[in-house]
Specification:
Layout (H helix, E strand, L loop, with lengths): L3 E7 L7 H12 L5 E7 L5 H9 L3 E4 L6 H14 L3 E4 L2 H10 L5 E6 L3 H4 L2 H10 L5 E3 L2 H7 L8 E3 L29 E6 L8 H12 L5 E6 L5 H8 L8 E5 L4 H4 L5 E4 L8 H8 L3 E5 L4 H4 L7 E3 L4 H12 L2 H18 L2 H13 L11
Parallel strand pairs: 1-2, 1-4, 2-3, 4-5, 5-6, 6-7, 8-9, 8-11, 9-10, 11-12, 12-13
Helix pairs in contact: 1-15, 3-4, 8-13, 11-14
């Protein structure tokens, strides 16, 4: 059988995008003899991301517009010229562009990566459900399936957990000497969080928890990695709370994975996570982890076994769980070791690539055929 020609379409490919890195992981791990893989973006690629994708043997396309009709016309030309069998869209806008662009012999699949993307807007829900009623849907977690599955859907459905590259396979994690460059004492107790500064990532809750902890733990520091629309606002809030001088805003860091080595605890207080790539990276780095009981995070962390869980939006409970770990080095080590073992089993990149490939290869090649 000839290789399946697949084009994956996303909005953009900055280095900070979780979905972009999922697609990068798939491009690196998939069997390019079975899949002739193309990846396209509505917006221009970050040059480093485009180069890294090209090195995997993936063909990269820029559609050059973030609206609907113009990128759809550009995509249709690619579909016809390259004889693409299917387009796999990874955002609602990309999915609608693909639906407009698709030819009769090109199927469109929707690979849904989040929870809040659709359910926050009734119009989006209606458009999505109408457009996707016969299409194949791929979900990154059971919680995402629960959020976006619906009774009127007559297409195929699959849940494939994301694969996450092992940070220990790339550059070594930083040791305590690296704390010197951040102005953090080597003997300090460090909490870390990697996330875009947007409302549902709940930096506010983490700051409130840190303020509660600051008096009892005067050697505790907080490291925040990422950028976003609430970055300046959050930094201003940090200057007003107890212990704010021990909060470090590092911005976007290409060495975010190595920085896990400086953390004693990784905290993830978001209130709507569809998966949690940063959480799994922390698991693989053997960090002790505290997450909320929201979204798909309970699917990722087994409370008391691979990490601790707190109530969503509950700063006091988050502070209690961090304090528990701060007082118990043996617990931190045990949770970290268990977390890495489980993450290697459940979130391996080869398993992930084979899972997505199996879904794609089982898809009928002619869009006129009924899904199995």
């Amino acid at each position: 059988m000839k290789p399946l020609k697949v084009l994956m379409l996303h909005r953009d490919f900055p280095q900070t995008s979780g979905i972009a890195w999922v697609l990068m992981t798939f491009a690196r791990r998939c069997d390019h003899q079975r899949l002739n893989l193309h990846i396209a973006s509505l917006r221009p690629f970050d040059p480093a991301m485009a180069e890294a994708l090209a090195q995997t043997g993936t063909i990269v396309h820029e559609l050059g517009d973030t609206r609907y009709l113009k990128p759809a016309l550009a995509l249709r030309k690619i579909i016809k010229a390259k004889k693409i069998d299917m387009v796999v869209a990874t955002s609602l806008k990309a999915y609608l562009v693909a639906k407009i662009a698709a030819t009769p012999k090109c199927r469109v699949l929707y690979w849904i990566h989040g929870i809040a993307t659709l359910i926050e807007n009734r119009l989006k829900v209606a458009v999505y459900r109408w457009a996707a009623r016969r299409d194949t849907l791929i979900f990154i977690s059971e919680q995402v399936k629960k959020a976006h599955g619906y009774a009127g859907h007559n297409g195929r459905e699959a849940v494939v957990l994301n694969g996450v590259d092992d940070p220990l396979d790339s550059a070594p994690l930083y040791d305590l000497i690296q704390r010197d460059f951040l102005g953090i004492p080597r003997a300090a107790f460090v909490i870390g969080y990697t996330a875009e500064f947007i409302a549902w990532k709940q930096h506010r809750t983490l700051l409130a928890a840190f303020s509660k902890l600051s008096e009892d733990f005067p050697d505790m520091h907080l490291v925040l990695i990422g950028t976003g629309e609430l970055w300046k606002c959050t930094r201003a809030q940090a200057q007003e709370i107890s212990g704010g001088e021990r909060i470090h805003f590092l911005g976007s860091r290409p060495d975010a994975k190595q920085l896990l080595g400086l953390m004693d605890v990784y905290a993830h207080p978001s209130n709507g996570e569809g998966f949690g790539l940063a959480v799994v990276e922390a698991m693989l780095a053997r960090r002790a982890i505290v997450v909320t009981d929201a979204g798909a995070l309970p699917e990722i962390i087994d409370d008391g076994v691979t990490g601790l869980m707190c109530h969503v939006l509950d700063a006091a409970d988050l502070a209690r769980k961090i304090a528990t770990l701060a007082k118990n080095a043996e617990m931190r080590q045990r949770l970290g070791e268990q977390a890495r073992r489980v993450a290697l089993e459940r979130f391996g990149t080869e398993r992930f690539a084979k899972g997505i490939t199996a879904v794609l290869e089982s898809e009928p090649r002619d869009s006129g055929a009924k899904p199995e």
